[in-house]
Amino acid sequence: MSTPFENTYNLSVLQLSNLEKAEEMMLKNDLGNAERLLLEMLESDADCIPVLSNLGHLYGRYLSEFETAVEYYDRVLEIEPDNAWARDSRRRYLRYID
Question: Could you write out the DSSP letters of every residue in 69-93?
Fold first, then answer.
């Protein structure tokens, strides 16, 4: 499967497909299934940055579980400290935590 972007994280075809499915589920407000799929993916690869980022996005934007979102972005930043997207998203959700 060729991708229209650089596969920076060397994701498998299955991972790419599942990420696309999870993102579509979020857009369709099928949040429970998106969460389940992403958590299953995380079981296979606990340090998969795209999965961790999508979980942060799911919990922050869609579920308003800001502390959980920040935890996922923290994990991304532990693995990849220069990840500007995770840093900015983390900062956005920190504002909502006491």
Answer: HHHHHHHHHHH-TT-HHHHHHHHHH
Distance (Å, whole) CA 13 – CA 3: 10
Q: How high is the pLDDT of residue 5?
A: 53
Top CATH class, 13-94 = mainly alpha
Considering the entire predicted model, what is its pTM? 0.91
89 and 56 Cβ atoms separated by less than 8 Å:
yes
Q: Is there a contact between 71 and 90 (Cβ–Cβ < 8 Å)?
A: no
Helix ranges restricted to H, 1-98: 13-27, 31-44, 49-57, 66-79, 84-94
Confidence check: pLDDT of 3 > 80: no
Q: What amino acid is encoded at 46 in this protein?
A: A
Residue type (1 letter), 70 = V
- In the chain the first and final C-alpha atoms are separated, in Å, by 45
Contact 41, 51 (CB under 8 A): yes
